[in-house]
Design a protein that fits this description.
The structure holds two protein chains of two kinds. By secondary structure, chain A is α/β, with parallel strands linked by helices. Chain A has 19 helices and eight strands. In chain A, helix 1 packs parallel to helix 13, helix 13 (386-411) packs across helix 19 (482-502) and helix 17 (447-458) packs antiparallel against helix 18 (470-477). The chains are: A alpha/beta, B alpha+beta.
Chain lengths: 516, 364
């Protein structure tokens, strides 16, 4: 029997799970390679173009920068509007008794497979995650847990898995520990290969013996530092039951990077909260959303595309694009507007924290490899409407381009015509007014940060007794760091990632160190 | 039962998006016009072309006035003022500080351009460090005769007036000894910061000072054109009192088309006060010596905009910038002083003692 029969027709293509150009041949390889080059070239061309224009066409460059600053102010207003609404919705969802909401549904047939891929995270991290899962308001007899370890991590990690199984095994319907073998040909060591191995093990060992309907099993793929709020599964099931296409949808919670917020420094907090806010904004415009980090999806959908990709870095987002392509564009992400808590990036030293944040964000921004995948498959899958293909391509292109170029253009290159524009430009009112106009517009845009500061304070966990109330003042004022963090932890790692992809220096998976 | 707060509807988001997009396209032309110097005149419902003035002062606590209106009191990090939206005509600028000479200048403002000026304010009572041939064992300068200069200035160092002091109990001041050698060879002065082209010519950073006809002193720019200071080859302009407002009014559409129309670019590309490469201009400026003979001249330390002139009545600092007039302020007033600029300091010699004139601020 053909082992691919369970796959959707488009997912049976040999290039469906392509990770990089070198995995293809002929014209497809050439096309994919060109697409890998495009994002980096576009970003570098923009940045160098602004510099060149500042030297040779300073008046034009100045007009462009002013226009760009206005655009930035309005974009900030636009995003703040979404953020504020999602904040209201998030708080509302957290106040709802989702158990009561579910009373009108028959959902006893819905089972949960909760997977925690882990590498060498300490016992305390894994333990607090499983403890939060054990405390959720959901029938644990319909919850199967998979702790997915790595052979490469050695016996210590396996000992942690065994200890956790002993401690929590009896609470859930089942508790499976899987060990992903190392050095599997065709795989990249990382979360994608581990979790895909684990879910297949779970299918064979947990689902099939129970003869469970794959369409009634919801898989939650959680990073191992994910601490769950009590009603997560009730909220998830409610959305699953009310979804227009429950089996053609992924379910995305809001990742709050606040588990260790009181241990984190200002820099780390701002970066963590910024990431949260971006996801909150996206929750209000689901047509632009892809899954990110911890998320849930039906087993049926995953099985039809052979799970997460094993050969690339950003598998958490790629799975959405896999599902979207395989379902000919008929696939959604449903925002839950309900939180899960994760760790902010904290290392023992400031330099270590900066290094870790940079590496983590470079890994995240390496999600630009998804742009290549999307455009490549849009040229192949003509069952997706042309309108949708164009819209998604432009949205993604704008996203990756603006991520890298906007902060640098605004906070660094915005002043370039003044220094590079030459004598004639320097003597004009435009030259003198350029920094004034841009500065005033940026101050206006900073009002968006006030909203951010207010919202962030409401999402901070309870204050430890040893911390003074003054910490809240610091947490509010820390938002003035945003221009710096946008450049150092967004634009530069993004440019780094795009440049690596451009030159074919493909990145591997870097595991963010976790500590409590 | 569903949550009461719904996600933002597509219609709602679309409306907000188009509202902001409209704000973008509406605000863009107005910001372009504002940034290039157009201002709206509500009385005749038209846009007016304006210019700007950038006045830099070297002292903190100085007051900058434009057309007799106080616009800025300088602070440590705010020692300049940029005035925008000024009518395109001649404006009077003065910079004053208590206890210092006032710098006054009339400057032209052209549409869409910024006129720059650098003021200077020397103290009315100078501070000097007296350097004597002899000093005590503890290094205190010893005056054996009276000094008229010290009577009219402040001293930065201690000194003793001992008319009957025996030199056998004193030490020779080596600083005096080395400086007096410089004064002796004053006609072949070798200022370390300047290149001596001829006996009476100094050149530094593309500016040459030389003595011309009628013993006048001239400043000539000999460096690259791109680096030429703004006041060389400046156009003549009407005086402040006689100047009248230039009519630079435009309708909004005409103003906008001027901003974006390449045919109108000349006004911006070749501003009046900057020098067109095609223009025949000899960048030479005569330094105002106020009808007194000049016995010595050099650049003011660390400046190519100011000249030190040693004259019969004293030592003066004169700006090269000859738009309207050249500000001229006394550094040290005394007859028949010999002067030398050496190692970033100005020294005067009255035949008995050497005086280092203290320059208290950073000069440019």
């Amino acid at each position: 029997m053909d082992e691919k029969t369970h796959l959707l027709p488009y997912a049976r293509r040999t290039d469906f799970h392509v990770g990089r150009a070198t995995e293809l041949k002929g014209g497809d390889k050439f096309l994919y390679r060109v697409l890998e080059i495009v994002p980096g070239v576009a970003s570098w061309a923009t940045l160098l173009g602004v510099l060149a224009a500042s030297v040779y066409l300073p008046f034009l460059a100045a007009y462009f920068i002013i226009a760009f600053a206005i655009y930035w102010v309005l974009k900030t207003a636009f995003l703040s509007y979404h953020l504020r609404h999602n904040w209201k919705r998030l708080r509302h969802h957290m106040s709802i008794n989702w158990g009561e909401m579910l009373e009108r549904f028959e959902y006893e047939h819905v089972h949960h497979l909760v997977i925690f891929p882990f590498y060498n995270e300490p016992l305390a991290v894994v333990d607090s995650t499983l403890a939060s899962l054990a405390k959720t308001n959901y029938d644990k007899s319909r919850m199967m847990v998979v702790l997915a370890g790595e052979e490469k991590a050695g016996s210590e990690a396996q000992d942690i898995a065994t200890a956790m199984k002993e401690k929590y095994g009896s609470i859930f319907a089942d508790f499976l520990v899987t060990i992903h073998p190392k050095n599997v040909p065709g795989e990249m060591a990382g979360k994608g290969s581990n979790v895909s191995y684990a879910i297949e093990e779970a299918r064979v060992k947990l689902l099939d013996p129970r003869q469970l309907d794959y369409g009634q099993v919801l898989v939650s793929n959680f990073d191992v530092d994910t601490v769950l709020y009590p009603d997560y599964f009730n909220c998830l099931v409610w959305h699953f039951m009310t979804a227009e296409r429950p089996l053609k949808s992924s379910y995305q919670p809001v990742p709050l990077f606040n588990n260790n917020l009181w241990q984190a420094g200002s820099l780390s907090r701002v970066v963590a909260m910024s990431s949260t806010f971006w996801e909150m904004v996206q929750q209000e415009r689901p047509e632009r959303m892809a899954t990110f980090s911890s998320h849930s999806v039906s087993f049926q959908a995953l099985y039809e595309v052979n799970y997460w990709q094993r050969n690339m870095v950003s598998e958490d987002s790629r799975i959405y694009w896999n599902l979207m392509m395989a379902n000919n564009g008929e696939y959604d992400v449903i925002p839950l507007s309900y939180p899960v808590s994760m760790d902010a990036n904290v290392a023992p030293t400031l330099f270590g924290t900066i290094k870790n944040i940079y590496k983590q964000h470079r890994r995240w921004t390496y999600g630009v490899e998804n742009f290549v995948y999307i455009v490549y498959h849009f040229t192949k899958n003509k069952n997706i409407s042309l309108r949708k293909r164009i819209r998604v391509t432009l949205q993604q292109a704008e996203g990756y381009w603006s991520l890298v170029t906007n902060p640098i253009m605004l906070f660094v290159l915005g002043w370039a015509p003044i220094f590079l524009g030459g004598r004639v430009f320097h003597e004009t009112v435009l030259s003198y007014n350029l920094p004034i106009v841009v500065r005033n517009l940026l101050i206006l845009a900073m009002f968006g940060l006030v909203i951010s500061a207010i919202i962030s304070l409401s999402l901070v966990p309870e204050r430890p007794k040893h911390r003074s109330r003054f910490s809240y003042v610091v947490m509010a004022l820390q938002w003035i760091l945003v221009p710096v963090t946008m450049i150092i932890f967004s634009a530069i790692p993004g440019l780094d990632a795009q440049t690596r992809l451009m030159f074919g220096r493909y990145m591997g998976f870097w595991v963010t160190p976790k500590s409590r | 039962m569903t949550p009461q707060i719904k996600p933002l509807s597509y219609r709602h988001r679309n409306f907000f998006f188009y509202a902001l997009a409209s704000a973008f396209f509406l605000s863009l032309p107005f910001l372009f016009l504002y940034a290039t110097g157009y201002r709206f005149n509500p009385f005749d419902n038209q846009f007016v072309s304006t210019g700007g003035l950038y006045v830099a002062a070297e002292r903190t606590g100085a007051q900058i006035y434009i057309d007799d209106e106080l616009v800025r009191e300088t602070r440590v990090f705010r020692r300049a003022f940029y005035a925008q939206g000024l009518e395109a005509t001649t404006h009077k600028v003065h910079v004053q500080k208590e206890g210092h000479h006032t710098w006054v200048k009339e400057l032209p403002v052209y549409p869409h351009l910024v006129t720059e000026a650098q003021s200077f304010n020397l103290p009315i009572i100078p501070t000097v460090k007296v350097i004597t041939p002899w000093r005590t064992g503890s290094g205190v300068a010893v005056l054996t005769s009276s000094s008229t200069i010290l009577a009219s200035s402040e001293s930065s160092n201690q000194y003793l007036f001992e008319p009957r002091a025996s030199t056998s109990t004193l030490e020779v001041d080596p600083e005096f000894a080395s400086l007096i050698e410089l004064f002796k060879s004053a006609t072949t002065s070798k200022a370390t910061t300047t290149l001596e082209v001829a006996t009476s010519t100094k050149e530094w950073r593309g500016v040459r000072l030389f003595e011309g006809l009628n013993k006048d002193v001239f400043a000539s720019f000999v460096g690259p054109y791109e680096q030429m200071p703004y006041y060389y080859c400046a156009e003549t302009f009407p005086p402040y009192d006689a100047s009248t407002s230039t009519s630079n009014t435009l309708t909004a559409s005409a103003a906008m088309s001027e901003v974006v129309n390449p045919d109108q670019e000349d006004e911006l590309v070749l501003p009046v006060q900057s020098v067109s490469p095609n223009k025949i201009c000899e960048p030479v400026i005569k330094i105002d010596r106020a009808n007194e003979e000049v016995s010595y001249f050099d650049f003011f330390p660390n400046s190519t905009d100011l000249v030190v002139l040693s004259q019969e009545s004293g030592i003066y600092v004169v700006e090269i910038d000859d738009r309207a007039w050249q500000n001229r302020q006394p550094m040290l007033l005394a007859k028949d002083l010999k002067t030398i600029v050496y190692n970033g300091a100005v020294y005067a010699y009255d035949g008995n003692y050497i005086y280092q004139i203290i320059i208290t601020q950073n000069w440019f």
